[in-house]
Design a protein that fits this description.
With 237 residues, the chain is of the alpha/beta class. It contains seven helices and nine strands, in the order βαβαββααβββαβααβ. A six-stranded parallel beta sheet has the order 1-9-8-5-2-3, with helices on one face. A three-stranded antiparallel beta sheet has the order 4-7-6. Helix 2 (47-54) links the parallel strand 2 and strand 3. Helix 1 (11-33) crosses helix 2 (47-54). The protein is globular. The protein binds 6-phosphogluconic acid.
C-alpha cells in the first residue's frame, strides 16, 4: 500500500522530527480553532517524543488537550498504564491544567463502562462538531496492530461507537481503544515505528496491495487528513 514515509537514523532523530511536525500542527490548530486536541499512543516508542516535548518552552499548555488512543484496563499507577507512561515522560514536568488531561477512566467498574465514559468525554469535548482530533499518534505492533486494534478484532468493523472495550491477544488483555470510525476523522495522523522487530511488518505493509494489506489493522485506518509514517532505519530494510 502507499505510505508517506520519513526515515530517520534512529529513535532520537525520529522523535525530534515528529515533535517539529507536532508543534507545527499544534500552532495551526490553535490559530484556527483556539485549541489543540491530540490523542497519544502507548507502548515504548513515543516516550522519547513526550520527553522532548516536556522541554519545549514557551508552550501554550492551557490550549493543549491530551487524550489517549488506547489504554490497558489497569490502574493509573500500574507499570503497564499508558497514562502513567505519559505522566512520567511529560505531564509531571509541564504546567498543563489538570482539566486539559483526559485519561481513559480505568477506575470504572469494567472496561465497557470505561469505554462508554470515554466516548461521552469525547462527545462533550467536541460538542456539536465531529470528534476530529487535530493529531492522532499511533504505534505499530509486529503483527500489524495499532492502538488496541488487533488482527481479526470485532472492533475493526465498528462503525458507530468511537471507543470500545476489547480483549487483546496481549498483556494485559483487557483494553479500551479508539475505533476506526474515530481514528478516520483525524485531521492528522502519525505512525511512530522504531526498531528491527518492526522491519517485517513495515515491509509487508509497503509491499501488499491495499486489499491484501487490510489483514493488518494499521492498514484499515484511512483518516480524512494526512497520514505520515515516521520510521527509523532499523524498522525499514
Ligand atoms: C499499546 C499501544 C500499541 C503500541 C504498539 C507499539 O498500548 O500497547 O498503544 O498499539 O503503540 O504496540 O508499541 P511499541 O512502541 O512499544 O513497539
Amino acid at each position: 500500500m502507499e505510505m508517506d514515509t520519513r526515515v530517520f537514523a534512529d529513535l532520537d532523530a525520529l522523535s525530534h522530527a515528529a515533535l517539529n511536525e507536532l508543534l507545527r500542527i499544534m500552532q495551526e490548530a490553535i490559530d484556527q480553532r483556539g485549541r489543540f486536541a491530540i490523542a497519544l499512543a502507548g507502548g515504548r516508542t513515543p516516550a522519547r517524543l513526550y520527553s522532548l516535548w516536556s522541554h519545549e518552552q514557551p508552550m501554550p499548555w492551557d490550549r493543549v488537550h491530551l487524550f489517549w488512543g488506547d489504554e490497558r484496563y489497569v490502574s493509573q499507577n500500574d507499570l503497564l498504564s499508558n497514562f502513567r507512561m505519559v505522566r512520567e515522560a511529560l505531564i509531571a514536568h509541564v504546567p498543563i491544567p489538570p482539566a486539559n488531561v483526559h485519561p481513559i477512566p480505568t477506575d470504572q467498574p469494567g472496561p465497557e463502562q470505561a469505554a462508554e465514559a470515554y466516548e461521552s468525554t469525547l462527545r462533550a469535548f467536541f460538542g456539536a462538531a465531529a470528534p476530529a482530533l487535530d493529531l492522532v499518534l499511533l504505534g505499530l505492533g509486529p503483527e500489524g496492530h495499532t492502538a488496541s486494534l488487533f488482527p481479526d478484532s470485532p472492533a475493526l468493523g465498528e462503525t458507530k461507537r468511537l471507543v470500545v472495550a476489547v480483549k487483546a491477544p496481549a498483556n494485559p488483555p483487557n483494553r479500551i481503544t479508539f475505533t476506526p470510525a474515530l481514528l478516520d476523522l483525524a485531521r492528522n495522523t502519525f505512525f511512530l515505528v522504531s526498531g528491527a522487530d518492526k522491519r517485517a511488518i513495515v515491509a509487508a505493509l509497503r509491499q501488499e496491495s491495499p486489499a491484501a494489506a487490510n489483514q493488518f489493522p494499521a492498514a484499515r485506518i484511512r483518516p480524512a487528513g494526512p497520514v505520515v509514517w515516521f520510521l527509523d532505519r532499523a524498522a525499514c530494510s
